[in-house]
Amino acid sequence: MENSELKQKIADYLAENPNEHLRTLAEVFAVPEREIAAAYALSVKVPVGDFAEVWNAAAAWEGAMFYVDHGDVIVEYSGKLPKGEIMFDGTMLNLEPGPFGGHVYLENLDAVYLIKKTLYGTESLSVMFYNTAGASMFGLFAGRDGRRKIIPSVRDSFEELWQKYSVRGKLR
């Protein structure tokens, strides 16, 4: 399906079903979720080579939610993310030790998108990471305060990334 055609189908579908997640849209249109992110009206593509920069920007946020959805399980971790360092000739992001840690293997990372969406009347800002098959590896969502509103400083940082990559995309 051509990107402009998919973009219109997504817009039409969301007009009737505004609270659908990207994964659901991928199922509805029988395309990898990465294609939904690419065609979604409020998305900005980030160069894969900027992965560590974007991760570490999110690690500086007051709060974030690390989100993994692999069909059979959804895992959410809310809190402060650890900083990461690229290691082993650029093949892995090693996260600092702490309550949330580990490694992100980068060989299969194919696309990164900043996404703005409203779900159930609530603003959602995320950074989504996709593998070479087009499936979601994980997402980072902007942290919220006790009233379930996005923390203002987190929104500001996300908007800085949005502006940076929006401008970069227009120059290509």
Superfamily (CATH H level) name: HemS/ChuS/ChuX like domains
- How many extended strands? 9
* Strand percent estimate: 25-35%
Helical fraction equals 25-40%
- How is the biggest beta sheet arranged? 6 strands, antiparallel
Return the average pLDDT rounded to an integer.
Answer: 89
Distance between the termini: 23 Å
Choose one word for the global shape: globular
Radius of gyration: 16 Å
Helix tally?
A: 5
Please tell me the total number of domains: 1
As for the CATH topology, it is Heme iron utilization protein-like fold
**Structural class label:** alpha+beta
Query: If classified by CATH, what would the architecture be?
Result: 3-Layer(aba) Sandwich
CATH top level label: Alpha Beta
| Low-confidence runs of at least 5 consecutive residues | none
The run of helices and strands is HHHEHEEEEEEEEH
Trace the largest sheet across and list its strands.
1-7-8-9-2-3
